[in-house]
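Follow-up to my earlier ticket, as requested here are the two runs.
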Amino acid sequence: MEIRVQSVKFDADQKLLDFIDKKVGKISKFYDAIVRTEVVLSLLPDIHNKSVKIRVVIPGNDIMVEKNADTFEDAVVDCVDVLKDQLVSAKEKARNK
């Protein structure tokens, strides 16, 4: 599974990129047919100013999750938790067709 990371208006450090690879890489065990995963990191002007959008490209349709948190790491973990449930549901739907 290919993981693309894009940081908007800042440069993500290697530690953050490694963390994203580790956490997002785990979702491949919930759905075998993932084509690629796109992660967009951006800064917001409000209190929870770290935004993470994760788009998982699977056959048929894409799954997109966006979360805001105090740190990018927290937002990534929140996104991955939601993605796990959505990928399991998508896998069940694909199996029942």
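Run two:
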Amino acid sequence: MDTNNKPTPRPTLEGVTLEKIVTHLSESMGWEAMGEAIPIRCFTHDPSVKSSLKFLRRTPWARAKVEELYLRTQRSR
């Protein structure tokens, strides 16, 4: 059996909080780049982790986009 053809494991969000995701993205990308990648007001107008968390917890579609952005940054490492 050839074990060299195993797909590389995909990063998951298990154990990663939304606060950790937003903090990581803001520190690694910056708010401006986050706002360009996902044009939502909490990233483009007076951004903060607190305001972003409040919005993302109430808005499932936006949270899904932020989680996907986080996963893409983890894959490129």
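The only thing I checked on run two: The radius of gyration is 15 Å. Let me know what else you need.
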